[in-house]
């Protein structure tokens, strides 16, 4: 396999590039704009036009070794796409709010003037907190960091939160609680194929992180085992050694059932448990009840499969537990993360190479973006607003008095609640498309429509921009430079391949220009480049849990990325966490947590007899605002569908490819049926990458995890109905 001789491959590759004789072309080393795999790619640039004209994979990138998925190979087509926003837009016609019409082009000056006037007026009348910021983590660390500072120092509002609340918040909560630190992976990905058993819970790995699949299959090639827990037989489940086909929302019982067997069958590592953990006895007591039979009753997974899972994981000399949104986007998300982490803590399979725990982070900068202060309760370096020492430190870096630091805000979905109450009256939205991606769309769209004033910053006019009063055109990832932190916790460099198209500007520059016009320029004007912002971030994170102080752009280039924590310039970074068996709780011990099971927010009943679960397809990305514009991806997957088991289809007299109506207590929508045995009989699945009347989030529930405030996208109760007349599509 290529991975074994990657150094040779890399040398050969560089020779090939040197021998290239394309007088009009140059290659710019960078990474994909989409998921947290952050695959290495070279953008091909025409040196006469200075425009990006194509892409090739980077064989020299150690994580992905020249692999890319269909989204990655077409990502460059966004940059010079005909739909790019090239000038600011101002809404002239309020009656057309909620549609893409009613805008006119404007100059930056006019747009800025309007924004500053409206924000200032609203803040004068209703207080600083009447203006809010809602952000996203497709942005670089530099932009994410500056967005947090922009909210607190320029707008002086407490209300900032971001789309990681829908994505990584439960993983962060669970890992922090169990291990005392939230770096998504305790090991580098280059370890993955060398382990003996991988347990993948709620991860559609082949569709969502396709370029890690060679490492998953690598485990099997070496004689190891792959176990998958998912209500659907996804591509990775199909080829796995064991598929635990649980009912949506029952992971807590499944994890407890497996941990019980690990303990009962002698797989616990007593030395490790004694020296490095707390909570074993309480957990042992609690999970006793979760016998294979009882666990099977709750989860619907056959008892033999549960027994086999514990045996395969327990026997493996090295093993990795990985999870993704399937277990996290539940009201039990934080508990699920800790419950699966218990598997590693009880058996001591953590804190060494080839063994550990990882959440498979979603967005490109899903890791870095959650560390540097875009979250309602967080400050850079994973510091907390609730901690006066943390506030003191960051205030000093920012040059404000600690008393001036706004207090904690509320989570992303709860911000819509404050819009309803008119506590929040204005919104600065960037890098997110909640008019597609938030749950309970009928409610969310109404709140966006009722705002007094809304700004949306994007490079394509999104469904959310339709509610805006001003739309600001920003750059794509290829027109700016900065860093992201990938799925492993490795900080990497994104390079500029083309100058900004039209009048578009990078987010950080827009924020600095608005800050200056708000009279807050003295806190921002020293930041002239994205590198200046990074250097300030280094200082702001210094001494925090996510310590980036020792990371420099030069070190990133030299070392193929730097894993945090990295405390000073001589520190190479930390690929493996806990090699010294010291966890990040004050006593150095990890927590094995006793977690009683509880029901999901909504369970099927007579009226709504099916579980509805939602997720992704390989061809589209998140709200689809980017990938739905790429012809190849649209051709491959033009519209959403509902997956239905053949027996369920028969029960409702539904045929393959016919349109059906799907209902929940919150809304309804029409989908084409895909009949497949790869789903449970009691469950239907719809991907969520489409907006307007096709959005499955018209149907999902806004119930939140009590700790992470993350919505339960992965289960609610639904009804399916044959349509009386053929749908006009
Ligand atoms: N192609 C593609 N790739 C992506 C993205 C994308 O939009 N498209 N998005 C990126 C982002 S931001 C993210 S967060 C990740 C998401 O990556 P994943 O979490 O892997 O993707 P999902 O499809 O949301 O859900 C994963 C699986 O959870 C299963 N599931 C549903 N309910 C349950 C349950 O109750 N328990 C368990 N155990 N499983 C359940 C679903 O059947 C699904 O197969 O992907 C990233 N990569
Ligand atoms: N039903 C259901 N809903 C879900 C999920 C699910 O599994 N099921 N998953 C949830 C998850 S995990 C996630 S991550 C969310 C994601 O949902 P969103 O936050 O809506 O994600 P995107 O579609 O990436 O939205 C990003 C928007 O910003 C733009 N953009 C990209 N890069 C930049 C940039 O650098 N600057 C600016 N200003 N704009 C940029 C894009 O064009 C796009 O319009 O969806 C959540 N919603
Ligand atoms: S796997 Fe993720 S990072 Fe890699 S090419 Fe596909 S979308 Fe891009
Ligand atoms: Mo995500």
From TrEMBL:
Gene3D superfamilies: 2.40.40.20, 3.40.50.740, ADC-like domains (2.20.25.90), Dimethylsulfoxide Reductase, domain 2 (3.40.228.10). The keyword Iron-sulfur applies. Its EC number is 1.7.-.-. It is an enzyme of class 1 (oxidoreductase). Its cofactor is Mo-bis(molybdopterin guanine dinucleotide). One of its GO terms (molecular function) is oxidoreductase activity. The keyword Repeat does not apply. Residues 25-83 form the 4Fe-4S Mo/W bis-MGD-type domain. SUPFAM superfamilies: ADC-like, Formate dehydrogenase/DMSO reductase, domains 1-3. Keywords: 4Fe-4S, Iron, Iron-sulfur, Metal-binding, Oxidoreductase. InterPro entries: Asp_de-COase-like_dom_sf, MoPterin_dinucl-bd_dom, Mopterin_OxRdtase, Mopterin_OxRdtase_4Fe-4S_dom, Mopterin_OxRdtase_prok_CS, Prok_molybdopt-oxidoreductase. This is Assimilatory nitrate reductase catalytic subunit.
């Amino acid at each position: 396999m290529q991975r074994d001789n990657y150094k040779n491959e890399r040398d050969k590759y560089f020779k090939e590039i040197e021998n290239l004789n394309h007088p009009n072309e140059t290659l710019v080393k960078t990474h994909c704009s989409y998921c947290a795999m952050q695959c290495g790619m070279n953008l091909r640039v025409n040196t006469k036009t200075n425009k990006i004209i194509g892409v090739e994979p980077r064989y020299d990138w150690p994580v992905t070794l020249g692999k890319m998925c269909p989204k990655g190979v077409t990502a460059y087509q966004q940059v010079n796409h005909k739909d790019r926003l090239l000038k600011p837009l101002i809404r002239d016609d309020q009656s057309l709010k909620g549609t893409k019409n009613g805008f006119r082009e404007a100059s930056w000056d006019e747009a800025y003037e309007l924004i500053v006037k409206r924000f200032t007026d609203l803040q004068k009348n209703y207080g600083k907190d009447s203006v809010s910021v809602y952000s996203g983590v497709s942005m670089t660390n530099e932009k994410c960091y500056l967005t947090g500072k922009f909210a607190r120092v320029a707008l002086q509002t407490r209300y900032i939160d971001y789309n990681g609340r829908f994505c990584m918040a439960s993983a962060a909560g669970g890992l922090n609680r169990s291990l005392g630190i939230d770096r998504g992976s305790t090991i580098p990905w280059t370890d993955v194929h060398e382990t003996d058993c991988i347990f993948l819970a709620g991860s559609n790995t082949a569709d969502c992180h396709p370029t890690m699949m060679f490492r998953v299959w690598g485990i099997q090639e070496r004689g190891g085992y792959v176990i998958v827990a998912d209500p659907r037989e996804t591509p990775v489940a199909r080829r796995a050694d064991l598929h635990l086909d649980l009912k949506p929302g029952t992971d807590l019982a499944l994890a407890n059932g497996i941990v019980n067997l690990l303990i009962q069958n002698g797989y616990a590592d007593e030395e490790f448990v004694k020296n490095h953990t707390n909570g074993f006895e309480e957990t042992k007591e609690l999970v006793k009840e979760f016998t294979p039979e009882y666990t099977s009753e709750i989860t619907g997974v056959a008892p033999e499969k549960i027994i086999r899972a514990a045996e395969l994981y327990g026997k493996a000399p090295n093993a990795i537990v990985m999870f993704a949104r399937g277990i996290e986007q539940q009201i039990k998300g934080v508990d699920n993360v800790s419950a699966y982490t218990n598997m590693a803590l009880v058996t001591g399979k953590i804190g060494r190479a080839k063994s550990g725990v990882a959440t498979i982070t979603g967005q490109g900068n899903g890791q870095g973006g959650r560390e540097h202060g875009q979250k309602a309760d967080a400050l850079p370096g994973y510091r907390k607003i609730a901690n006066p020492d943390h506030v003191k430190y960051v205030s000093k870096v920012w040059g404000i008095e600690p008393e001036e630091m706004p207090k904690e805000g509320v989570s992303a979905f709860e911000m819509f609640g404050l819009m309803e109450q008119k506590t929040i009256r204005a919104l600065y939205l960037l890098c997110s498309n909640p008019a597609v991606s938030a749950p309970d769309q009928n409610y969310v769209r109404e709140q966006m429509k009722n705002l007094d004033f809304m700004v949306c910053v994007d490079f394509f006019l999104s469904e959310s921009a339709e509610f805006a009063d001003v739309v600001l055109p920003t750059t794509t990832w290829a027109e700016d430079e900065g860093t992201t932190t990938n799925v492993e916790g490795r900080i990497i460099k994104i390079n500029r391949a083309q100058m900004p198209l039209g009048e578009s500007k990078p987010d950080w520059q827009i924020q600095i220009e608005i800050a200056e016009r708000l009279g807050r320029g003295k806190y921002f004007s020293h930041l002239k480049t994205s590198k200046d912002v990074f250097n300030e971030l280094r200082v702001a994170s210094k001494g925090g849990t996510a310590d980036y102080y020792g990371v420099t752009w030069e070190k990133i280039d030299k070392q193929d990325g730097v894993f945090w924590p990295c405390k000073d310039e001589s520190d190479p970074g930390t690929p493996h966490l806990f090699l010294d068996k010291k966890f990040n709780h004050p006593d150095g011990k990890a927590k094995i947590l006793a977690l009683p099971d509880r029901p999901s927010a909504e369970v099927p009943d007579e009226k709504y007899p099916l579980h509805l679960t939602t997720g992704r397809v390989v061809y589209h990305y998140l709200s689809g605002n980017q990938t739905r514009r790429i012809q190849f991806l649209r051709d491959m997957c033009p519209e959403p569908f509902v997956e239905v088991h053949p027996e369920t289809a028969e029960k409702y007299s539904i045929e393959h490819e016919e349109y059906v109506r799907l209902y929940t207590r919150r809304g309804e929508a029409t989908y084409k049926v895909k009949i497949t045995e790869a789903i449970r009989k009691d469950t239907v699945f719809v991907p969520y990458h489409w907006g307007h009347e096709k959005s499955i989030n018209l149907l999902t529930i806004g119930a939140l995890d009590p700790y992470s405030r993350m919505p339960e996208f992965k289960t609610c109760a639904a009804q399916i109905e044959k349509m009386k007349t053929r749908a006009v599509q």
